[in-house]
Amino acid sequence: MDLIANVAAAIIAFCASVLGSIMAHDICVSAERTCAKIIRKAASRLAPFDREAGESEWLADPHDRETVHEKYQHAIGCFLVAGKMRRQARAVTIAISFQVTGVGTIPLALNMSSWVLGPLFFKAMNAKSDTIKKIVVIFGALYLLAKFIRSANRSLGPGLKLTREHLKQYKTWGYGARIKRKGIDLNVGNIFRAMVLQPDRIQEIIKKVSDCLTPLNEPRPT
Amino acid sequence: MAEKIRVSGPTLKLLKLLLDDPKRPRSGAEISKATKLGSGTMYPLLQRLEIAKWIEGEWEDVEPSEVGRPRRRLYKLTRSGKAAAVNELAQYQTAAATTGAPAWT
Questions:
Q1: Cα–Cα distance for residue pair B12/A130, rounded to 1 Å
Q2: B40/A65 CB distance under 8 A
Q3: Chain B residue with minimum CA distance to A91
Q4: pLDDT at residue A219 greater than cutoff 50
Q5: What are the pLDDT digits (tens) for A147-180?
Q6: Would you call A93 helix, strand, or coil by DSSP?
Q7: Which of A75, A117, A154, B103 could form a disulfide with B96 if both were Cys (CB 3.0 to 4.6 A apart)?
Q8: Residue B101: C-alpha distances to residues A70, B94, B95 (Å)
Q9: SS3 sequence, B88-103?
Q10: Bridge pairing between strands A184-187 and A104-111
Q11: Are A68 and A29 contacting, i.e. CB atoms less than 8 angstroms apart?
């Protein structure tokens, strides 16, 4: 009985090893094709304006990787991270800088692609109750002030501090604002200047600004 | 001008590699091999640094049909990125020296 069991176990082990070898061989032979497939799928999850470049870059990468394991690791890594890269690329930031006399330049960056604060703010602002609107405006202003003070404390050199006196002189501050997204950096001051000085370019300028802000209006991918 | 960004361990590794020879552009695979960072960590990091203007990417100047593969994207530090990277690495070295932690190698 033992002999039969041993023979059966040996046959099964032999068959399993043969099948395993065949599968491993197939995986190795088809690695390039399978990885390319995974990478194309991953690239389709990138932001629309990034897809073509991302796919091309990621497809070139496996040619510099020697082992099959490295190729698969790269393809799967790209697939897993594509969503994060899409969010990163679509993020629209409004970067404002304040030139405070006697203190220096204080930057303030507002992420317009926030999934929580932005939608909550606009929903509350559309509420019927005036009290809710007032509360939201007050909270919004306090949030911006806190962010501004935090940014000032971080960016100013040692020995420099933003005081209440400086805040009171806000009318004398200089301002600059930019709208930024991956590959786009628009100077708001220049936009207005261009619109005033070159009215014939207004259409073109509005299109560029609209392209930059497109991710904000696109529906969230599911 | 380069923006301020959060600098993590992988970021320092990447910046150190690019600072070794700032004029030489490197491909993603080359960076990955040298820093031992996986694609899942490296590509979002490259994207973040590119958005913040610490690095700039350019396409390899070859014809894909001639080399038999797609063109590589090559990355190198921008001028402001180089200054920011030197500053970050110096800060890390100082912090490591005061806390007794091993310096960045």
A1: 50
A2: no
A3: B51
A4: no
A5: 888 888 777 766 667 777 777 777 788 888 888 8
A6: strand
A7: B103
A8: 32, 10, 8
A9: HHHHHHHHHHHHCCCC
A10: unpaired
A11: no
Compute the nearest-CA separation of B3 from chain A (Å).
10
From the list B27, B28, B48, the residue facing A88 with the nearest CB is: B48
Q: pLDDT digit string (tens) for B38-65?
A: 889 999 999 989 888 889 888 988 888 8
Which of B17, B48, B49 shows the shortest CA–CA distance to B34?
A: B17
- Is any Cβ of chain A less than 8 angstroms from the Cβ of B73? yes
Cβ contact, residue pair B69, A60, below 8 Å = yes
Calculate mean pLDDT across residues B20-29: 88
Domains of chain B: 9-92 (1.10.10.10)
Chain A residues inside the 8 Å CB shell of B32: 61, 74
Q: How many CB contacts within 8 angstroms connect chain A with chain B?
A: 74
pTM summary value: 0.72
Task: Residue count of chain B, please give it.
Answer: 105
Phi, psi of B2 (to 5 degrees): -75, 140
pLDDT at position A80 is 94
The complex scores an ipTM of 0.84
